[in-house]
Amino acid sequence: MIYPPDDSITTLSLGPESLPMRKINTRNFRLATRSTPREVNRRIVLNLIREYQPISRAELARRMQVHRGTMTPLVRELVESGVVFEKGTAATARGRRPTLLCVRTRGRLVVAVDVRPGRSVIALADVSGHVLARDAFDTPDSPAELPELLATEVASLLREHAPDGVEGCQGLGIVLPGMVDRKTGRLIYAPRLGWRDVDLRSAVAQRVGMRCYIESAPIACALARLWLEPDATRAVNSFAYVSVSDGIGVGLAFNGEMLRGEAHTAGEFGHVSLDSSGPECVCGRVGCWEAMACNSATVDRYVERLTGNVQPRNGTAKRAARGAIRPGIDEVVRRARGGEPAAVSALVETGEHIGKGLALVVNAFNPGRIFVGGEITAVWELLEGPIRDALAAGTITDRTRATPVVPDSAPAEYRLRGAVALVTAPGYAALAVG
Ligand SMILES: [Zn+2]
Predict the structure, then answer these.
(1) pLDDT in tens, 235-266
(2) Superfamily for the 236-412 domain
(3) Is the entire prediction scored with pTM above 0.90?
(4) Residues 6+ apart with CB under 8 A from 336
(5) C-alpha 142 – ligand 1 centre gap (Å)
(6) C-alpha 241 – ligand 1 centre gap (Å)
(7) Rounded CA gap, 288 and 296, in Å?
(8) Ligand 1 centroid from CA 187, angstroms
(9) Which of 50, 109, 167, 373 could bridge to 414 as Cys pair (CB 3.0-4.6 Å)?
(10) Which of the listed CATH numbers 3.30.565.10, 3.40.50.300, 3.40.50.10420, 3.30.420.40 matches domain 109-224+417-424?
């Protein structure tokens, strides 16, 4: 049988909530020994089906370089367990019509939660990240209130949209604007929420009665690129995912695995200062990338251009200023799409600031590609030019200047898809061998 070469296997503990996850490279694996756990081979077959679906058994055997007889029992197990299903037929030159294998998504549900300052979003999605229903709720001031609140929200969502209730759900994924210790499930620090060192995962799992996964939003979004978008990642397993929302976070994937750092702070580019005379940041410093390019910075710029008034820069005054005249980022994006000059120019400047920060990411990490997620990517045509110019100005070789920068295809749901990936990825990830 087959398993990935050593450099694409990671050692995993078996607690599902704490699995480090490495993507199996479906273009580079080799025959396994007899002692290889059956589960490893099963996962390789599952990954191949996921990546190349719909795929016939003959094509699968060809890609695995094994006889069909070796592969058949593994496929049968996957079909019997309901993870894979057979659909339709494919015409062949000789006229035989084999059934095709696909990964089952229907009826396999995930609860996804995107926690943000102010309002959070909860959604019911299938395992491929397709959102079926969503609702919003006020983010509590204290993290201690979150488990009870989520229990109520989950119950109401399942009552309306999931006939099998908790039984039909694979788990609950939560993305947060902060650093998370993946092993312990503790939220280390979320500056914009003011939450620090709290054991959210077990508290929520206990209260909701469902397996729970929590992760920093940009890391979860990068996982979604790895696990929910097979086409996009065929060519690139080393990339940066930049989430532009209330803050800016960067998730770094290297050879199909997330880079987290010794203290779970890898990718914290958001608080690198780009301008010593820039606006004050929530972290207390001045001119941070995040303070220049996050959604509230864009809205501030827009309001300034519209009214001629400089917006208050410190947090308290800004909260007080949030009133009738201050639109949300979606509204600024909408007005930019309609060609309103103040909105267009505010977003063009946001593009410049994003590009300056991307140059930092490229110089530090040299990713094969950068994905940008956020509400603002709905006007990518305004951002792309300034982003590319600033990236070119801030990097030093032709190759790094040419780093592809690609908007996430789901501006309204990119973080929810990240939350879904937290739940589904462990089922596909590489297992340790021997
Ligand atoms: Zn900062």
Answers:
(1) 577 899 999 999 999 999 988 888 888 888 88
(2) ATPase, nucleotide binding domain (3.30.420.40)
(3) no
(4) 343, 344, 346, 347, 379, 382
(5) 22
(6) 19
(7) 13
(8) 19
(9) 373
(10) 3.30.420.40
